[in-house]
Write a structure and sequence with these properties.
- The chain is α/β, with parallel strands linked by helices.
- The chain has six helices and eight strands; from the N terminus they run H-H-E-E-E-E-H-E-H-E-H-E-H-E.
- The chain is globular.
- The protein starts with 15 loop residues before the first helix and ends with a strand.
């Protein structure tokens, strides 16, 4: 298993296609083992409210409270391709940010130290990749997911006090006006909250 940090993990339960996807994501092997495998990275059958039971290979994403670390609920990242649905989430569960495990600090430390920059990106997998490389990254559940009251309340302690924040959306921002508009309005929201937003591109 190719890795960036010399960690050897048992991939006997994964096929070649699945291993390639993990390597391509650039998430370090240590992070994959601790965070993804232990959270439930496997082929299984799942049945969630509002969805048919499907053959599912993917990641059971732990949506944690940033202060206590308690898992509030799980989302399911579908890694099968092609797929109609990228993420599964039970009906009625609010959209909240995803806070990946950080190597260098806990999220409470980040909350209290506004000198630490934060990267906002789309999708739990990209946020995990950035976190595994030593960055404080928070995932947005879709380009307009930040609009919900629950999401904004969750972020309130992270986007004040002149903190520099980077917005790293997918490259379809160049071709889809709706994605461009979502990033611009999110930037306005962050600025009004007291943060210093900066745009990054893939």
């Amino acid at each position: 298993f190719p890795s960036h940090d010399k960690t050897i993990i048992d991939t006997s339960s994964l096929n070649e296609r699945e291993i390639e996807r993990l390597v391509y994501s650039r998430i370090t092997a240590t992070y994959i083992f601790r965070e993804l495998f232990n959270s439930g990275l496997s082929m299984k059958r799942i049945a969630l409210d509002g969805y048919q039971e499907d053959d599912f290979w993917g990641w059971r994403v732990p949506m944690r409270d940033p202060v206590s670390g308690r898992v509030r609920f799980y989302r399911y990242k579908n890694l099968n391709q092609p797929f109609e649905i990228k993420y599964y989430q039970k009906k009625g569960v609010p959209l909240v940010p995803f806070y990946p495990f950080l190597e260098f600090a806990c999220w409470l430390d980040v909350m209290q130290d506004s000198s630490i920059p934060i990267i906002f990106t789309e999708g739990e997998k990209k946020a995990s990749c950035l976190a595994s490389l030593g960055k404080a990254a928070i995932s947005i559940p879709g380009v307009w997911g930040w609009c919900s009251v629950d999401f904004q309340k969750d972020l309130s302690d992270f986007v004040s006090e002149d903190r520099t924040v980077f917005l790293l959306f997918d490259d379809d921002i160049k071709t889809k006006p709706s994605v461009r508009k979502a990033l611009d309005e999110f930037s306005i929201f962050l600025h009004r909250a007291g943060a210093k937003p900066r745009e990054m591109t893939i």
